[in-house]
Amino acid sequence: MSMSKSMPETRSRSASGYAVLAEGVVKRYRVKGGAEKRALDGFDLAVRPGTVHGLLGPNGAGKTTAVRVLATLLRFDGGRAEVSGLDVGREPRRVRSRIGLTGQYAAVDEGLTGRQNLEMFGRLFHLGNRGARLRAGELLDRFDLVEAADRSAKEYSGGMRRRLDLASSMILSPDVLFLDEPTTGLDPRGRGEVWDAVRALVAGGTTVLLTTQYLDEADRLASHITVIDRGRAIADDTPDALKNRVGGDRIEVVAADGGDLAAVAKAVGRVAGGGLVLTDDTTRRVHAQVADRVAALTEVARSLQDDGIAVEDIGLRRPSLDDVFLRLTGHGADAHDLEQHQDAREVAAA
Amino acid sequence: MTTLEQNPAAGTPATTGAGRDHGLAYWAVSDCWNITRRTLTHYQRQPSAIVWQLGFPILSVLLYGYIFGSAMKVPGGGDYREFLMPGMFAMTMAMGFMNTAVAVVTDAGKGVVDRFRSMPMAPSAFASGRGAADLVVAAAELTILAVTALLIGWRAGGGVMAALGAFGLLLLLRFSLIWVGVWLGLLVPTPEAAGGLYAVAFPLTMISSTFVAPSLMPGWLGTVAAWNPISSTATATRELFGNPVAGGGTGVEEHALLMAVVWPVAITLVFLPLAVRRFRRLSR
């Protein structure tokens, strides 16, 4: 134990060299009527130690199921999964002492204070009374909850509750931390607090597998992203490489007058090289993918000026992960989440 | 968050990997105790919760004892309030399963159950700890109810040992219903839905010998009431406390003491495996 402690950078390594590894994982559900649904259908995932790995996917794609399988909450029906070098199917109990889990709802006991929460979970992690007390003190300090420590968790803000939740999942200094939509429902300030906490954890050597419905969250935190759709990984790369895959930069023009949109679209069309020109009437936005960014920008600006069309804004932007989603899955990333909850309920009702 | 830079992933030596060398049985007991302690801390932090839980039976005691009491007849004679008290005790124990169910569904909904399941603790501890805490709370409820009863003139004339036996039977009923509560708590989707169980539970506790002797009810209803497990416990404790029994002469009423043991054992044999199965099913 003490040896592995002194070398935190090697703790998550397994024989495969990955902190989390899933190979062809299958998870079947029986839905009403006897039909079978594959929530995971040959799911692959490889997470390098000490990184934040984003798991993105549209509604009902299997993100939450994947996390629940890897965190030993759900048994799976096929394939192989390894967490921190341990086989998830064969040694769930040992896996449990190496992981932390923060689910979609902050799993804090509202009937207890922040400190009592951490001490209770510490005792249940078998630290003993004294050990649990010490660890609670450390974590309250690290997650900036010292002042609120002896107040009821019921009175905590969303961000504080999430930090307490994160602290509870960090009691055993896990090798791998699963974060399932950790900032859903938080205000921007709360999200920032959670992001800071996650970055600090990773700086300390923890590997994080993050599912999120916020693409900017994955963009900011994750060094690697797996896109999942219909229970299968359909892309796996760095955020930048994924964006490149969607195509190069896009030019974007916001017309000052909605009546000029057609003329703007025409000007943009000339540099789009036959590519799709998208027009959004409500935001008066016209955008298209371009090959040579600088030449395109110059030409569009000049032709609009020549035609005397006033623009509110003109610029180039990198494709967002939204674009990646649209391209890879054929549907957007909006209207997320609902089905994830439905999945959870299906499990409860099964 | 000034100290976040110092490797938050690593704990101090005192906080890592403690106590791995104990056996599974040790941790089953230890984890159970920690879950029990958690529930008791809830009450300690919010003692009013137990007062609210007792509000209904105490109010019922006063309403039935003083408002309807003079109009109520006990078959075979005897004071109605003396007859009522053991019934109230049994009913309070029976309604207790609602507290278990609501607590379990609340934990499940908040993800606390998932957290417990993702931790290396004994899987049995969640239910056993809940049950142990519920029994402690039930004992406290009985004490408060008994003191209230004594204040309005109820007396137990059957001797100390018999009285202890009666309280034992009451707690046995509560014990068996813990498993009904855990099972229901894992079955219903929300705490609100669990609250709706009151609508079912309340009539079920009324159709018993709690308030009125079954022999005074219409024939078929009286039969149902006589066979209600709550009636067996109520009648058995009436006998043990030396209170008016008002037995209807049917077999199940004549053997109330036996039935007050048989029923809880049967309920446990049915619902303990159901609750365990439900808990295991969370992994499916």
From TrEMBL, chain B:
InterPro entries documented for this protein: ABC2_TM, ABC2_TM_bact-type, ABC_2_transport, Nod_factor_ABC_transporter
Signal peptide: none
GO biological process, one term: response to antibiotic
Location(s), subcellular: Cell membrane; Membrane
Sequence intervals crossing the membrane: 49-68, 88-113, 133-154, 160-184, 196-217, 256-276
Chain ranges of the ABC transmembrane type-2 domain: 48-282
UniProt similarity note: Belongs to the ABC-2 integral membrane protein family.
This protein's name: Transport permease protein
Taxonomic source organism: Streptomyces microflavus (Streptomyces lipmanii)
Phylogenetic classification of the source organism: Bacteria, Bacillati, Actinomycetota, Actinomycetes, Kitasatosporales
